[in-house]
Design brief:
It comes from Bradyrhizobium diazoefficiens (strain JCM 10833 / BCRC 13528 / IAM 13628 / NBRC 14792 / USDA 110). This is Blr4528 protein. InterPro entries: MOC1-like (IPR045290), RNaseH-like_sf (IPR012337), RNaseH_sf (IPR036397). One of its GO terms (molecular function) is nucleic acid binding. With about 160 residues, the protein is of the alpha/beta class. It has a single domain, classed as 2-Layer Sandwich (Nucleotidyltransferase, domain 5), CATH 3.30.420. It has five helices and seven strands. The protein has helices spanning about 40-50, 70-90, 100-105, 110-120, 135-150; strands at about 5-10, 15-20, 25-30, 35, 40, 55-60, 95. A five-stranded mixed sheet has the order 3-2-1-6-7. It has a two-stranded antiparallel sheet with strand order 4-5. A hairpin with a 2-residue loop joins strand 4 (about 35) and strand 5 (about 40). The protein is globular and about 40 Å long. The two termini are about 25 Å apart. The model has no long low-confidence stretch (mean pLDDT about 90).
C-alpha cells in the first residue's frame, strides 16, 4: 500500500510536497531547501528520509529557449542534485513533463492557475499557497496529486 508520495517542482525556486492518499485533502509542502543559493542536498535528503515516501514524481525539465547559459547551468545543477538525492535514497522515480501533469489536471502554463487549483484541492492547507510566490509549492503539491490519480490511489477530481 502506498502511504506517501513525494511531488517535486525542481530548482532553487521549486518545492517539495508529501502527499498522503489516505487523506487526499491534505498535503505537507515546503520550499526547496536552499543553502548558499543552491539546492541543499543534505537537508533535502534529511526531509525525504524523515517523510519516507513510497514513490517520487519529479517534473522532467529541459533547458528553455532564450534562457541564459549561466541560469541554464544553475537550473541543471539543481535538477541533478534532486535526482542524486532520490537515487541515493533508492526511491522509485517517475519523471513527468509539465505538459503531461498539467494536461491531466486541465491546467495551462499559468502559474496562478496552478496556485488556484491547489487552494481548491487542499483547503485545509491553504496557508501554504496564499502568496503569489507560492506557485512552486502549488506545483509540487499538484505533481504529487497527479501521481496519486494516475496510480489510481485516489479518484480524479481536479
Amino acid at each position: 500500500m502506498t502511504r506517501c508520495l513525494l511531488g517535486i517542482d525542481p530548482g532553487a525556486s521549486g518545492a517539495i510536497a508529501f502527499y498522503f492518499p489516505s487523506h487526499p485533502e491534505r498535503v505537507a509542502v515546503e520550499d526547496m531547501p536552499i543553502a548558499a543559493g543552491e539546492v541543499d542536498a543534505v537537508n533535502l535528503a534529511r526531509r525525504v528520509a524523515a517523510m519516507a515516501p513510497d514513490l517520487v514524481f519529479l517534473e522532467r525539465v529541459n533547458a528553455m529557449p532564450g534562457q541564459g547559459v549561466s541560469s541554464t547551468f544553475k537550473f541543471g545543477r539543481a535538477y541533478g542534485v534532486v535526482l542524486g538525492v532520490i537515487g541515493a535514497a533508492a526511491l522509485p522515480l517517475h519523471l513527468v513533463t509539465p505538459a503531461k501533469w498539467k494536461g491531466h489536471l486541465r491546467l495551462s502554463s499559468d502559474k496562478e492557475e496552478a496556485r488556484a487549483l491547489a487552494l481548491r484541492l487542499f483547503p485545509a492547507c491553504a496557508d501554504h499557497f496564499k502568496r503569489k510566490k507560492d506557485h512552486g509549492r502549488a506545483e509540487a503539491a499538484l505533481i504529487a496529486r497527479y501521481g496519486a490519480e494516475t496510480m489510481r490511489l485516489i479518484g480524479g477530481g481536479a
